[in-house]
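Technical annex, item 7. During the second reporting period the consortium partners agreed on a shared format for inverse folding records so that results from different sites could be compared directly. Each record opens with the tokenized structure and is followed by the designed sequence. A conforming record, contributed by the partner at site C, is shown below for reference.
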């Protein structure tokens, strides 16, 4: 009977490990994959139009609450790409705020 319970626990552990691995592979694909719309706009020479965005470039009025988390995101190598995606989506959030929100949601899901 204990061998049956162990096999169920082993299967659950393997599935949990595979799901975490899939999440990391998906994040890598999502962050490093080129955008087909951006490629098309680059053909027409409109890349500066995208990078300018519609929101103001003032970072001085933003508090530095999440500066450490932003450095962590930059340390993992996806801070610049995430900043570009936030600018392009016209979200009024910094990389640190967005990363903190993702970490909070991930913690709530797993707890």
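Designed sequence (site C submission):
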């Amino acid at each position: 009977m204990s061998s049956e319970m162990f096999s169920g626990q082993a299967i659950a552990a393997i599935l949990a490990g595979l799901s975490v691995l899939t999440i990391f592979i998906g994040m890598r694909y999502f962050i490093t994959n080129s955008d087909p719309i951006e490629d098309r706009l680059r053909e027409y020479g409109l890349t500066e139009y995208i990078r300018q965005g519609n929101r103001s470039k003032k970072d001085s009025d933003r508090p530095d609450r999440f500066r450490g988390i932003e450095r962590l995101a930059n340390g993992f190598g996806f801070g610049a790409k995430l900043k570009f995606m936030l600018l392009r989506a016209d979200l009024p959030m910094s990389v640190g705020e967005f990363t903190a929100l993702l970490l909070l949601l991930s913690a709530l899901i797993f707890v």
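Residues 2-32 form the longest helix (31 residues). Residues 14 and 56 are 47 Å apart (CA to CA). All partners now use this format for quarterly exchanges.
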